Each structure stands twice: as C-alpha cells, then as structure tokens.
C-alpha cells in the first residue's frame, strides 16, 4: 500500500498528522511511513519500528493465535521484561 497523508487521520504511535500514513495489518492502525528514507536510513518512522521490533507485528507475522497480549509464545520469545515493556507501550497506543 502506498503511504500518503490522510485527512483527519494521524499516526497512532507518534501522533503525526502530516506524515504519510499506511494501515498496518497486524493491529489495523494508521502509522506513519517514510518511504523516501527506508533504504538509506533503515526507516526511522513508526511503521518500520513497529514491524521490526514490536511483539504485535511479530505475533501477526508468526501467525500465532488470538491476541499477542495473551500469547505465551510471544512472552517466551521476548522474555518477561521486554514483553511487559511492550504491553505498557501498547497501552499508550491510542
Ligand atoms: Zn509515527
Ligand atoms: Zn501492530
Ligand atoms: Zn504470539
């Protein structure tokens, strides 16, 4: 999907209203995506961050069952501390 700014929408991670947005399939939310810098700086925008590091996307990508927040496999993979950090972070995800 092509990233473009969407009127009335904003990135659900950083809150940027003017950045190009894409809907990420793992949690079905709009996040910003900087297509121009992807190959040079390795992303940097929320879409890349989310796909590279989040339990949410990992869970989706590995096709685990149910919600990642209750997923034992994800908890084991990320480890207790990291997983709790992810949970905390996602609760501030509007
Ligand atoms: Zn963002
Ligand atoms: Zn997600
Ligand atoms: Zn999982």
Provide a short characterization of the protein structure:
This protein is mostly helical and 94 residues long.
How would the blueprint of this fold be written?
Layout: E1 21-24, E2 29-32, H1 38-41, H2 46-53, H3 55-61, H4 72-78, H5 80-91
Antiparallel strand pairs: 1-2
Helix pairs in contact: 2-3, 4-5
Bound molecules: zinc ion (3 copies).
Structural class: mainly alpha
Give the count of structural domains: 1
Annotation field: number of helices: 5
Average of pLDDT: 86
Strand tally is 2
Element pattern in H and E: EEHHHHH
Shape: elongated
Please state the CA-atom Rg, rounded to the nearest Å: 14 Å
- State the helical fraction: 40-55%
- The fraction of residues in strands falls at 5-15%
Unreliable residue stretches: 38-42
- Cofactors, ions and other ligands in the entry: zinc ion
Neighbour order of strands in the largest sheet: 1-2
Structure, explained:
- By secondary structure, this protein is mainly alpha-helical.
- The chain has one domain (about 20-90).
- About 40% of the residues lie in helices and about 10% in strands.
- The chain is built from five helices and two strands; from the N terminus they run ββααααα.
- It has helices at about 40, 45-55, 55-60, 70-80, 80-90, and strands spanning about 20-25, 30.
- Strands 1-2 form a two-stranded antiparallel sheet.
- Helix 2 crosses helix 3 (about 55-60) and helix 4 packs across helix 5 (about 80-90).
- It starts with 20 loop residues before the first strand and ends with a helix.
- Residues about 40 have low confidence and may be disordered.
- One zinc ion binds near residues 59 and 71.
């Amino acid at each position: 999907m092509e990233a473009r700014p969407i009127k009335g929408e904003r990135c659900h991670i950083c809150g940027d209203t003017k950045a190009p947005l894409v809907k990420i399939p793992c949690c079905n939310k709009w996040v910003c995506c900087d297509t121009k810098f992807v190959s040079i700086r390795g992303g940097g925008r929320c879409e890349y961050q989310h796909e590279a590091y989040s339990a949410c996307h990992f869970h989706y990508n590995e096709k685990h069952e149910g919600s990642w927040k209750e997923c034992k496999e994800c908890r084991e993979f990320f480890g207790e501390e990291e997983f709790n950090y992810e949970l905390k972070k996602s609760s501030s995800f509007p």
